[in-house]
Specification:
This protein has about 475 residues and is mainly α. The protein contains 23 helices and no strands. The termini are far apart.
Length: about 475
């Protein structure tokens, strides 16, 4: 169905661009609904998962492992992207015509941009330092929520979560019930909103077919092929790693990861697949639910392994089209810059993700305009493999952290011969059903009669307030009454 929506959207976008714009607006409504739930879900899941994680054996060691392995996965992805880009060398074999056309696109996008400094350099640096520090450690949790600062929100949520986990069990049971209800509500909202994914796929395909520049796509085909190929290769390796470390067969693992993978590929949002990823890794594959509920929401925003690969290949491609030779120092700068750009793009999408690539380009003294002009044109193609790789790397992080913990699968604790409790059913005879209907009719009639009686009593003179006639007499008899 998703493939048919993709093909139909491309056909409609090519034939009727005005319809494509309407379909694109509907897709943006879906993304707005997902983003509306994403940040609150991350906060509540951090509270909920942190409390369960601290109740596991060796909580400090596992918390430290989560942070170290998360940074290590992003750095390893950037390193592999840099090495693969250096070997395949995308953009080095561009023809003169394609290189000239890409240059004209960059120049046309940069035309008319003028940079004005309204403050002196020291004031600008001080303001930037204060803003960066406020992003990392905000002085107001609700301000961070209102501004949508993911890193500040995560730090505040961790601090509040640690305080919540340190409370006694009796005191925190009530809050635990509230957080549980809120958490399940957000899961339900995302699951229902995900039913609109075919509409999103149709809208994005139609919009891309109506607005894409064919010559830009052909000129950047080497980058697209390199990035998509490496992303699929690393995604396959991550799936095999999950399978080798789980007790389930390969087909079972693929079946469990199918839904989160499809949502990551088609939703254009890194948080849309959070509920299904939690369900797949905990309820189906049996990993610790406390670890899963702590890692998945935070990792969907901050562990951007797909973005690290993307930024590394982006830097190699831009360096090649500008004739910038890469040595060992340049490759190391690309690796470090891609890692920093991946964390800097946390909680962002589309334009902001591409703009984060300016970090690695600045380290190499390459034009930032190239990233904004060229890579925004193909971002819809690259967003799907980015999200897929990040989701599967999140699953790998869970597998590595949950080493040594018992499985939580229901079928791992119960045998196949255990009888499952049947659901409670209510059965009615014709007589009892007729009596129930008659009672409902009588009750409804009584409610109507009582309502009429209360209304008549409230409207009668002398009860509750003076009547209209009496009020009129008072006004006539007392002409000095200005009221």
């Amino acid at each position: 169905m998703l493939l048919l929506c993709l093909l139909a959207g491309a056909a409609v976008g090519s034939a009727a661009p005005e319809v494509a714009e309407l379909a694109f607006v509907l897709g943006q409504v879906y993304l707005a609904l997902i983003n509306m739930v994403a940040i609150p879900l991350m906060v509540v899941a951090t509270f909920f998962g942190l409390r369960q994680t601290l109740a596991l054996p060796q909580p400090a060691r596992r918390s430290f492992m989560i942070v170290v392995l998360a940074v290590g996965l992003v750095f390893a992805s950037a390193l592999l992207g840099t090495i693969f880009g250096y070997v395949t060398d995308p953009g080095s074999s561009l023809s003169v015509a394609n290189r000239a056309y890409l240059g004209s696109v960059v120049l046309s996008s940069a035309a008319g941009n003028t940079e004005l400094s309204l403050f002196d350099i020291d004031t600008q640096n001080t303001a930037s330092a204060v803003h960066a520090w406020g992003t990392f450690l905000p002085d107001n949790f609700f301000k961070a929520l209102a501004l949508g600062q993911p890193l500040g929100i995560l730090i505040c949520a961790i601090l509040f979560g640690l305080a919540f986990a340190s409370m006694g069990k009796t005191r925190s049971n009530v809050l635990m019930g509230i957080f549980e209800a809120i958490y399940r509500t957000f899961e339900t909202i995302i699951s229902r909103v995900n039913l609109l994914i075919p509409v999103l796929v149709f809208g994005l395909a139609a919009h891309f077919a109506a607005s894409a520049d064919g010559q830009v796509l052909r000129s950047m085909s080497s980058f697209i092929a390199t990035f998509v190929g490496l992303s699929l290769l690393l995604a396959t390796f991550a799936t095999v790693l999950v399978w080798r470390n789980s007790a389930a067969p390969l087909l079972t693992v693929l079946s469990c990861l199918k839904t989160p993978a499809l949502i990551s590929l088609t939703s254009a949002s890194s948080t849309a697949g959070v509920p299904d990823t939690i369900r797949a890794m905990s309820a189906k594959l049996g990993y610790s639910r406390g670890i899963v509920e702590l890692v998945v929401p935070a990792a969907s925003i901050f562990v951007r392994a797909g973005s690290a690969v993307y930024f590394a290949l982006l830097a190699v491609f831009v360096a090649n089209i500008y004739g910038h030779a890469l040595d060992g120092t340049g490759l190391m700068l690309i690796c470090l810059g891609a890692t920093m750009s991946a964390f800097a793009s946390a909680g962002t999408s589309s334009f902001a993700v591409v703009a984060s690539g300016s970090v690695v380009l600045s380290l190499l003294n390459l034009p930032v305009e190239a990233a904004l002009a060229l890579f925004l044109a193909i971002d819809l193609i690259c967003e799907a493999p980015r999200n897929l790789l990040s989701t599967l790397c999140c699953c790998v992080l869970i597998v590595l952290v949950c080493q040594g913990l018992p499985s939580e699968r229901t079928d791992a604790k119960q045998g196949d011969d255990v009888e499952v409790a049947a659901p409670v059913q209510f059965s009615f005879t014709r007589t009892s059903a007729s009596l129930a209907v008659i009672c409902c009719i009588v009750l409804a009639s009584l409610i109507v009669v009582v309502g009429i009686g209360v209304g008549q009593r409230a409207g009668s003179p002398g009860v509750g307030r003076p009547s209209a006639a009496l009020s009129g007499e008072l006004l006539v008899d007392n002409p000095l009454n200005t009221k």
